[in-house]
Write a structure and sequence with these properties.
The structure holds two protein chains of two kinds. Chain A has helices at residues 9-40, 51-81, 86-116, 124-145, 149-163, 166-176, 196-239. Chain A is mostly helical. Chain A has one domain. In chain A, α2 packs antiparallel against α3 (86-116), α2 packs parallel to α7 and α3 (86-116) packs antiparallel against α4. The longest helix of chain A is centred in the last third of the chain and has 44 residues, at 196-239. The two termini of chain A are 36 Å apart. The mean pLDDT of chain A is 91. By secondary structure, chain B is mainly alpha-helical. Chain B has one domain. Helix content of chain B is 80%, strand content 0%. Chain B has two helices and no strands. Chain B has helices at 7-44, 50-58. Chain B is rod-shaped and about 65 Å long. The model of chain B has no long low-confidence stretch (mean pLDDT 86). The chains are: A mainly alpha, B mainly alpha. At the A-B interface, α2, α3 and α7 of A face α1 of B.
Chain lengths: 245, 59
């Protein structure tokens, strides 16, 4: 099966049915290994045991931006190539991205209280991530407000691409402004500054959460394709003069 | 494994992630079942999509 074959929703459903059980198993194994490594990681000399919050906060924060990146590519697919699955992919990713962003904010606050002495500070990094969360909610509301998926698709795609401007702002906010949030310690020029004892559980958890996203995204895309089929059939039913199921 | 004086913050963080991930999985599973049920109900009434009908008519 070539990549272009997946443009057909029926072929995509067959492909997803075959792939999902393997993805679920891989995600469960990776999460189990990551959680074990997180539990066994030593205390940090400054943060103490709260360093364990980093192993879930950082993957969620990375994914909050990565999911918007995926949605931006899908938005290009909708606007430029009119790919049949592009809007399905974007719409299915939005609630998952919102959940990861919410978790990044919550776990960050729970780490901030003992380490910074506050749950929240209106600094550039925290505020730009909160804006990202609100943008996710706005997009979800837009898709829900417009009943016809093809009409909602183009408006959502434009909004997604405009919102992508926020991604470099989030990433470089700690360099451009004087923030309470610490600068990058993994994805930076010159390599990670983290000790291997913390880097390994962090990377395993990041891979585990990435697999979780891929699994949930494919499953949510499958649901969206089925929802659109139901809608198409209901329209046929209405045109035929039969009462709606 | 001792979590020290900030155990509440650490446990709450992991619990929050656990609850949200379980809710996401539950929502996706329930949504799949709902769409399948609606699709089966429509198919049992003899409703087919235009694309399916076109394929059937061609063959």
């Amino acid at each position: 099966m070539t990549l272009i074959d997946l443009a057909n929703p029926t072929r995509f459903l067959t492909f997803t049915a075959r792939l999902l059980p393997w993805l679920m198993a891989a995600t469960a194994i990776l999460l189990a290994v990551g959680l074990y490594q997180s539990a066994m990681a030593p205390d940090d000399y400054q943060q103490g045991a709260t360093v364990k919050i980093m192993f879930i906060h950082v993957p969620n924060a990375w994914l909050s931006m990565f999911v918007w990146g995926v949605m931006s590519l899908a938005a290009l697919g909708t606007l430029v190539w009119r790919h049949p699955l592009a809007d399905v992919a974007a719409k299915a990713a939005a609630p998952i991205g919102a959940a990861f962003t919410f978790l990044a904010l919550v776990t960050g606050s729970l780490w901030g209280r003992p380490m910074w002495g506050t749950y929240w500070e209106w600094d550039a990094r925290l505020t730009s991530v909160l804006i990202l969360f609100l943008m996710y909610l706005g997009l979800i509301a837009l898709w829900r407000a417009v009943e016809d998926p093809s009409r909602a698709a183009r408006a959502a795609a434009v909004l997604t691409l405009v919102g992508a401007i926020n991604l470099p702002i989030i990433k470089f906010s700690v360099d451009w402004w004087n923030t309470l949030h610490q600068p990058a310690s993994v994805m930076r020029m010159g390599g990670p500054t983290l000790d291997r004892a913390f880097l390994m559980p962090l990377l395993v958890m990041a891979i585990a959460f990435s697999f979780l996203f891929i699994t949930l995204h494919l499953a949510a895309m499958r649901n969206e394709i089925l929802r659109r089929r139901v809608r198409a059939m209901q329209m046929v039913q209405v045109q035929a003069g039969k009462p709606r199921a | 494994m001792s979590l020290g004086p900030y155990a509440t913050f650490i446990v709450t963080s992991y619990l929050a992630v656990f609850v949200v991930v379980v809710l996401m999985i539950g929502w996706i599973v329930m949504d799949y079942r709902r769409q399948r049920r609606r699709l089966n109900a429509l198919e049992s009434e003899g409703i087919t999509r235009r694309s399916t009908r076109a394929t059937t008519e061609k063959t």
